[in-house]
Amino acid sequence: MELSLRVSLFWMSSYLYSIFTSFLAFGILHLNGTAGRAGWRWADTSHRCTAFFHMAASPTQTTTWLRLKEWFSEKEDVIMVNTILRDDPTRGDMDNKEELSPRRLWTAICHNYDLWPL
């Protein structure tokens, strides 16, 4: 029941967001010439501001200098992490704290042909 509810809410919000952003994009692109900037520049600026102010580092690290309150309580964090690990146990042994060296970046780009947009 939990998965079906989450999936239905995801798709419903996706369609509603699509409708809202279409109207928003229409309005932003019609700012063409306002303050001497093209419409696409207004769209790019609004996108960058939205991403800067709303993106969180991870689901369990949601505080920033702008937003001092956590999105989830400690109990919700534990439930979320346990649910993710139960769905895919291989994520528990991932060590994401390794630095990305130029060699590892080159290997990731050249040897992952599936990621190339062809």
Specify the helix fraction band.
55-70%
Structural class: mainly alpha
Major sheet attributes: none
| CA-CA gap between termini | 38 Å
- Topology order in helix (H) and strand (E) letters: HHHH
What share of the residues does DSSP label as strand, in percent?
under 5%
Q: Return the average pLDDT rounded to an integer.
A: 81
- Helical segment tally? 4
What are the low-pLDDT stretches, counting only 5+ consecutive residues below 50?
none
Number of strands: 0
Q: What would you call the shape?
A: extended
| Rg calculated over all Cα atoms | 20 Å
What is the chains' assembly state?
A: single chain
Structure description:
The longest helix has 28 residues. The chain starts with a helix and ends in a 7-residue tail after the last helix. It is mainly alpha-helical and 118 residues long. The protein contains four helices and no strands. It is extended and about 50 Å long. The mean pLDDT is 81.
